[in-house]
Amino acid sequence: MKAIKVLPIMVLGLFLAACESLKPNVVVVLPESNGHVGAVVVTPASGGDRTVLDQAYAAVHADTGGKPERVVMDQGKVDKVFGRALAARPLPPRSFLLYFLEGKDELTAVSKPVFEEVFAEIARRPAADLVVIGHTDRVGNLLDNDKLALKRAESLRDSLVARGVPPQAIATAGRGEREPLVPTADGVDEPRNRRVEISVR
After folding, report:
1. Which of 31, 103, 140, 141 has the fewest CB atoms within 10 Å, counting from its CB?
2. pLDDT value of position 194
């Protein structure tokens, strides 16, 4: 049987599999957790008509000639056929924003509980990787802000390591004032720009 070419058009939940109850080369479009549905285009390897899948649980599989053939799927059937495979998928990355006192590498009182949430997320993963990126507002000069942004990222990295996260699992960087969350003129004190972004993967 000839394979089906799958051409993703947008980011979406997509799963390819073969199983006893369906023919090989099954393509099912799964909605994202927020309900968004993307689209894929399926064409036979030998050419021919394209099949567009742009609805939740739209599905095709290959017939004996490799031609895409529609399959009726729904949440229940997806769970039954692909449940074990879907359960084995890695967790999607999760990001956290932590804010700092002006000119310091000290977290605000509001951000301290958020830092604890980072550890809860790490605990959900068998082998978490973290990216820690520091930022500043636009008060001060560029060079000093670069140093402060990196100091903020490294301060949180040190706290993570002190709590048992392996150092090799953490990448750090400082972006200074280059990537503001809230664009401002130079010299403006904007608390939301004094932050570290932690991505847990």
Report:
1. 141
2. 98
